[in-house]
Amino acid sequence: MGASQRVYKKKIQATSTLEKVFRAMELIAASRIGKARKQALGADPYTKELTAALAAVAVHAQTNHPLVNERNDTNKVIVFVITSDRGMAGAYSASVLREADGLLEDLRAAGKEPILFVFGRRGESHYSFMGEKIEKAWTGESDKPSNETALEIAQLFLARFLAPAAAGGVAELHVVSTRFESMVRQTVEIRRMLPLVVVDEEEDSAEESADKSFTQYPLYEFEPSAQEVFDALLPLYVSQRIHSVLLMAAASELASRQRAMQSATDNARELINDYVRQANNARQAEITTEITEIVSGADALAGK
Description:
Strand order of the largest sheet: 3-2-1-4-5
Radius of gyration: 29 Å
Shape: elongated
Strand content: 5-15%
């Protein structure tokens, strides 16, 4: 075997190993995307009913609640960036980080002081490298967020928003995450989640428009009172929205990883075919060279 054939054989073996790794990662993501998608989309009916209940109670209660009021006593705002823990997911994390970087610049240009919270190792490593101060990071659950982590995040953000300015209170909460729309389409979204808009038009079919009349709701009797029910529903609504965006991001990450690994597998197969073709060409060239040398030697001996 000639030197060229040995080189191509090593390349074929190395690329075949990578192909197997890419294929395995694609199958793992494909096996998990179904459950993640079901969880992400399954949260919408609950969010819809919770929003409808909140809107119905708002008719009978005073909406002068700290969670829905603008704060002017501080310029601090929370920016919550949701990325992945691992790579091999195409431009998933890069797209989120690009939008988050732009948001941080816009907030600082507006005279606000962003406080950065990160979900996922990719975001943590990015902002650590950039020298940005990270208030807190959650890692290890980007593709499967738990209810406990979602509740912890929601309670922390609620506490910071309701705290006085002197105790570290913030005026706004912005979330940068990816919304799962289909297996081939995931879009990065920037949402201002607090102060709360009781009915958010951005939620499309999951939530009704704030301009619609509330006369469509029947009359209710509240125990102990409509205001107390409204006050109890608002934190629950915020917690549900935090959990919903985490589930959406997890489904988006798995879909992006499956698509990226499928492309990587196809590219590896094409590369292997190309190496095989080049190895065959090298083999044919070596055979031709050997035959030419034999014929030339025979002719030389016959002439002599």
